[in-house]
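Before relying on records like the one below, remember that each one covers exactly one chain. Contacts with other chains, cofactors or solvent are not represented anywhere in the record.
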Amino acid sequence: MDLINMRRSVRKFTNEEITDDKLMLLVKAAMQAPTAVNQQANVFFVVKKKENIEKLHKAIPGSLALATANKAIIVLIDKTKLKRNEFKEQDAANSAMLILLEATSLGIGSCWCAIYPYQERMIEVAKILNLPNNLIPFCAIALGYPENKNPFYFINRFDETRVLSD
């Protein structure tokens, strides 16, 4: 529960590089996500080139975190692997959340930047990354080491009034 309580959206990063080993840990975490009928239709594009991160920042309104991120992971949905299309968003969100949690465990800052269901964003991201037509861009996760040296602190958001029961 500590990891969950400490996770934050980080929007300002240092120039310190994230190693390829740590990026692969993030992708491995994402691939552990549960999916409908185990369809495992998510694909992950690791964006390492700063010029592509800058293009993504311009293509995704409100993506302040991409302005200073030194890496990003784009969660994609492979339409050819979908057995249950109606669950594609939930499956992709599960993968994205595991990236965010694993990043926190590694001391890496992260921030979810929405792409799906905005058609203009999806089209622009697909162009920037030269994606084939079978891949749907779902979200971008900006990554970097936090500028704030203590970004991960415990916060209790529990509110009993938001709990319903029979």
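The first strand starts at residue 42 and ends at 47.
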